[in-house]
Amino acid sequence: MADLTLALFQPDIPQNAGTMLRACACLGVDAAIIEPAGFLVSDRNFRRAGMDYLDRLRIDRHVSWSAFEDWRRGPGGGGRLVLLTARATLPYAAAEYRPGDILMVGRESLGAPPEVHEAADLRVTIPMVPDMRSLNVAFAAAMVMGEALRQIRGNPGAP
Question: Residue 36: is the preceding peptide bond cis (ω within 30°)?
Answer without folding.
Answer: yes
